[in-house]
Amino acid sequence: NAGVTQTPKFRVLKTGQSMTLLCAQDMNHEYMYWYRQDPGMGLRLIHYSVGEGTTAKGEVPDGYNVSRLKKQNFLLGLESAAPSQTSVYFCASGRDGEKLFFGSGTQLSVL
Amino acid sequence: QQQVKQSPQSLIVQKGGISIINCAYENTAFDYFPWYQQFPGKGPALLIAIRPDVSEKKEGRFTISFNKSAKQFSLHIMDSQPGDSATYFCAASMFGHGNKLVFGAGTILRVKS
Question: A4: which chain B residues are within 8 Å (Cβ-Cβ)?
Fold first, then answer.
């Protein structure tokens, strides 16, 4: 049982480049979330989804887009990366949005 | 605007001692208060959680104390062990609205052997 799998684990981008982070869960969870973790700021919610085909904005959504075309996958896109988006990104899923299961993270550097 | 304030930022405790991490929240609509534990290079994992209808919850060496009137809650780790060295996050959410968790800034705990 893999749980929550994030790909890639590491990535370096140049300013202005685009990329997509993939999150896949095999627990049949309805709720999925994307967080970013920065030193001294905890985890901040970027976007979330309460079911297949739904998405909603979190606390820090600017510069990011998401899609949930399949229940098991939640994609996070950066259309034009900026240095301020250098962070560690975590995907999480949950049956009811309370007990969350997190992936191991994607470390992104934007130069 | 930080909805959940966590302290201290870092904490060093001797093996066998008690580790205490505190959190305060502002939104009285919050009705679920979990603590997550994170080891280096890993994602956070749920440690223990409490709802505001009880003042304390204990699971093994971990205890949450909850003070609804003061809008504060804390994590106590009894008999702290080196294996407890990790970053701890408190969080809060309210039912509905996606049950979005709002996290504190985190506390880096180091237990010295």
Answer: 43
